[in-house]
Amino acid sequence: MSKRVLVFFPSKEYTESLVPEIVLKSGTIFNTIKTEVTPTQVKIMGEIKANEEKAQEFIRILKRRGAVVKELGLIMRFDPDKCVACGMCVSLCPTDAITFNKDFSVRYDFDECVLCMNCVKNCPVKAVSYLGD
Amino acid sequence: MPDIRSIDDINKRIRSGEVVVATALEMKEIVAEKGAERAAKEVDVVTTGTFGMTTSSGAFLNFGHSDPQIKMGGGEVLLNDVPAYAGLSSVDTYIGATQLSKVHKLEYGGAHVIEDLVSGKSINLKAYGSATQCHPIKEIGGEFTIGDLNQAIMVNPRSFYQRYNAATNSSDAPICTYLGTLLPNFGNVSYFSAGSISPLYNDPTFETIGIGTRIFLAGGIGYVIGEGTLHNPKAMCGSLMVKGDLKKMKQRYLRGATIANYGTTLFIGAGVPIPVLNSTIAKNCGVRDDDIKVNIYDYHIPTRVKPLVKKTTYKELRSGKVVIGDRTVKASGLSSMKMAVEVIEKLKGMIEEGEFFLTKPVERITMESMMRPMKLVYVKASDVMSAPVTCSADDSLKDVERLMLEKKTGYFVVIDKQRHVQGVLTSWDIAKSIVTNGTKVKDVMTSQNIKTSRKDEPVEVSMRKLEQYRLRGLPVVDDEGKVLGVVRMQDLKHKVK
Lengths: 133, 497
Hints:
The structure holds two protein chains of two kinds.
Chain A: E1 3-10, H1 18-26, E2 29-37, E3 41-49, H2 52-64, E4 68-71, H3 72-75, E5 76-78, H4 88-92, E6 98-100, E7 106-108, H5 118-122, E8 128-130
Antiparallel strand pairs in A: 1-3, 1-4, 2-3, 5-8, 6-7
Helix pairs in contact in A: 1-2
Chain B: H1 7-16, E1 21-23, H2 24-42, E2 45-53, E3 58-62, E4 76-79, E5 82-84, E6 92-96, E7 100-101, E8 105-109, H3 110-118, E9 123-128, E10 139-144, E11 151-159, E12 166-168, E13 175-177, E14 180-182, E15 188-191, H4 199-202, E16 210-211, E17 214-217, E18 220-227, E19 240-245, E20 254-259, E21 263-275, H5 279-284, E22 293-298, E23 308-313, H6 314-318, E24 321-324, E25 327-333, H7 337-352, E26 363-364, H8 381-384, E27 390-391, H9 397-407, E28 411-415, E29 421-426, H10 427-436, H11 441-444, E30 453-454, H12 459-468, E31 473-477, E32 483-488, H13 489-495
Parallel strand pairs in B: 1-2, 12-22, 15-25, 27-28, 30-31
Antiparallel strand pairs in B: 2-21, 3-6, 3-11, 4-5, 4-9, 7-8, 9-10, 11-19, 13-14, 16-26, 17-18, 17-21, 18-19, 20-21, 22-23, 24-25, 28-29, 31-32
């Protein structure tokens, strides 16, 4: 069980020990996949390794410490009605987030996504979009 | 093989509701299980289909005469800011799938205009013509929908193209091609075609598909009107020209698409019924993905002839994983299997319900192949190159500096005894030697990732390399990698028009 999230901390709230501290306190594993630091904010993309209940608890703690948390499943949108299942995104995906179902339709699992944006940039019919930031 | 039924027999059975139709997928199982003889006895019709990017596609539109009349022919026609062909009569035009919007460029093209027409959206028309006695107005503008047109007829010069190459990319940067983005270092493999359910693989000798064959075209009815462009049946690369009434088409089977950084194209779902007149036709319909060979080419070479990376089959491509060297690479097709299956099932349903009857071709499709490269003389790298100033890796920098002043050049090709390129030395490298205290050419020359031009490479390709990698020059090499000359930006500026 895992849940991928984008965590935005305002720079003034953030210290390097902040996330490890929360991990230790909650006892929930959080893998940092990507960190982006700008003068105003720190953007962390990571994976909460826990069941839904524990993951939500972890998100609550992050929020209490001043973070804005967005679940990847909510900021990446795949519209199966627009999709023609051409499969272009499948081979461009660096992870296993995009695969074919048995009936050749395309399946997105945003808990495997690393936000590389290959699918968003390349979809011929704009069936997948990014709503984050 | 003697025919066991005729197209008239099949149509009688469609009328009486007894017809037995199998989709191409089902037919493969029937032929494998029972053999071609029994399959031919049991099945009347096989439905085949594709849902793929049909780049050579478009539609003729007739607007009806305005009052007062305008002569668009010879002028300019814009549909949602996408230019349409204006070389026809006063109110006829042809909108092609790949034409880009003057405003939105890659985001919107002729293919999107056609999709918007089919979905009933309102389209903006701007047209400019020259005023004549009987056509006094010079320009016209306004909104229309497909219902306002007298005729909207899709005519696609190349449909059902049987076989495309598969593509991959060996270079260290992503490239954007008509097969989509190809990731660096063999990052992915991209291909077209619905493989063994595609019509022309099931009737490779055009036994049943001919001029006048009624087909399912984007949700409506269409007809084969001849062989298509690039028709090359001898190499299993047949193609068909088709037409259909755009007004009857459905958006589900017709979608405008943008290939990132490349252009626009039209996804079209189309199906062809194959009447099983004898057991040879049944046997042909038993073709499977592992029978169909495909070559994977390296598309980072922009010339027409590309290096072959691997020979494979549709079965391996369709599995989603292709082995190249010691790596497993993800592969995906730009032809939708899901929608192609929907097309063949839909067509099967239409025939079973008595909504679709088969036609006997009025003429056969030619088996002659016409597929030659464009015959134009182009300027090659070797035509514009200048003599190379060379040195060897063991030369001292002092000597080279002297040579530099003598020859008035800042660009040297470093070669070995066999004249193979070992590196490049520029005045910038020499400048570096002042700091790094190098004394020999090999201490400061650039020897990694040297870009070169082949001698018969078009200069446009060399020019692109110079711009892309910001190089001062490119050594021109022969087939064995020996230096023949150097192409520099200044040579190109002088010699290329």
